[in-house]
Amino acid sequence: MDSNKNDVLVTSIPHITNGVSVPRIMLCVTAALIPAGASAVYRFGAEALFIILVSVASCVVFEALYRIIVKKPATVADFSAVVTGLLLAYTLPASSPLWMPAVGAFIAIVIVKQVFGGLGQNIVNPALAARVFLQAAYPAQMSDWSSSAASFDAPSVSSAATHAVSAATGLHAASSATPLAVMKINAAAPAANDYINALIGNINGSLGETCALALIAGGVFLISVKVISWRIPTSFILSAVLFSWAMGRNGPFTGAPLYEILLGGLMLGAFFMATDYTTSPVTPKGQILMGCGCGLLTVVIRVYGGYPEGVNYAILIMNAAVPLIDRYTKPRVFGLGKRGEKNA
Q: CA-to-CA distance for 273 and 269, rounded, in angstroms?
């Protein structure tokens, strides 16, 4: 009798898995992001396509080169770098020079992801961190929406509000301001057509943030195939609705919450960034708390802060709070007290 048959193999948990791999998850996320990318290319033209391609290619190349330099196994086959490249590109204006997604890719992949140990070790979302870096380092390029002005004719909120932005800022290109920038200066009530334009992407904004319908479709797909949980996006969006109404731009309870959630990066952040496995809570209660925190901080920054948009900063702040959230929302183990001691 072969003695090897009686050997006991001792391994760490989990002992039972569902067979879902990282490449499969990342491919699902990539597929869910395609509608938003297609909408960007349709609205902004070849510029959008080039930015997306450069961003994705740069992320893949930087990850491959870093792994070679530090003599670690290659990881580009897991498609996580592709997802980071797509998310980074979707946060950039169509007027961005092609070196910007390359710089952002270096920050996202090398500085934020690989230096901390690679996939699963980063403490904040790589694409968001890179976007915030680019915003701080190149504010003029990151707020230039002029190339998108010719892509469509529909002004945001109202022509009067758009001219108010021009008068307040002294910029001749203010006609291409984003709806959030317009509302920051003049919070005029949105018309029925404004809701439609925001839903289908007939507005100014970053590449992947304009077509709310495409992002919602992608998010619903990810929830349906159980790649992400419904808790974070649902609590994020619902809390943003509540606080947008309560903290109205023209005073308490004067907001236009349904219009607010269709604008900027809220849908992109709620479905694709706040739900990142590594930088979001693992407990059900923690995920709901994460979403509510993102919604609250987004609205506070939009209404009271100096920037028109607050999604990026809100998610990064909540990323930093994830260890604390997990610590205080973990379920109690049977037979142990609140602090983990054995019951008498």
A: 5
